[in-house]
Fold this sequence. Notes:
Blueprint: E1 4-13, E2 16-25, E3 28-34, E4 37-44, H1 49-60, E5 69-74, E6 82-87, H2 89-94, H3 96-99, H4 114-124, E7 134-135, H5 136-144, H6 151-156, E8 160-165, E9 171-177, H7 180-192, E10 202-205, H8 211-219, E11 224-227, H9 233-241, E12 245-250, E13 254-259, E14 264-266, E15 269-270
Parallel strand pairs: 3-6, 7-14, 10-11, 11-12
Antiparallel strand pairs: 1-2, 1-13, 3-4, 5-6, 8-9, 8-10, 12-13, 14-15
Helix pairs in contact: 4-9, 7-8, 8-9
Amino acid sequence: MDTISKTDLIRWEKGTCSPQQMALVREEPLSIRIQGKPYSVVMRTPGDEIAHVAGFCLAEGIIDSPSDYTSIGFCEGEQTNVVTITLTADRRAQIPQILDRRNFVSQTSCGLCGKEIVDDLYQLLRPMTAKTLINIDTAAAGLIDLSSHQPLRTRTRASHAAVLFNAAGDPLAAAEDVGRHNALDKAIGKLFVDHRLSEVGFAALSSRISYELVQKAARARIAVILAVSRPTSLALELASKLNMTLASLSPDNGLFIYCGGERLAQKGVACGSS
């Protein structure tokens, strides 16, 4: 399975919009089964699946050495996103509490893929209808100024941030955390408990945009996500289907606009969408 996908987008820099093509890292689910039963699903870049599962099982305490399993391999061929590991009888007897601690019950199909995740989420999430225009200079400025909302990162260089702005570019809530998902949850939660989520015009993130971050923003009805790094292919697929806007920072403090460019305007005219 290829680790990179190509997408067409719009590049905005110094007041000019132009079409461009870009490579995005692929994001796909990997279902890990122990003794043929679902144990966990992790999101990852395709490749090195057998090594990935071996390392995961070592970290989880499922195995201590290669002698603890009798086989590790794909479910129905290498083109699937499912890997099964079979433990020895002795090892199974040593870790019953770990085997009972399944942290994700996956689909039973061996064909688990990103498209299935997007289709499932689409059934749970409502597409965005917000048509608010956000000045593209304002949006870019909020993203560029992200570091001013990161006192923890200034001291430690080890945290992510999420900042929520209104359409005029005024910051409404900011949060930091070692986990990018946690930072967004915290920022959203601050406004949610005060019944102010409807004021959000766009979110600015210090990280790449994964599909989970798109999902979280969609649940909060935040239609526009700007980030320092690019989205994954799966994040872009989900955002496009939900009629959201994704953009990331480009050289010279411009923006790469991947989808939903009609919400980003310069001089009152939407930049358009890819």
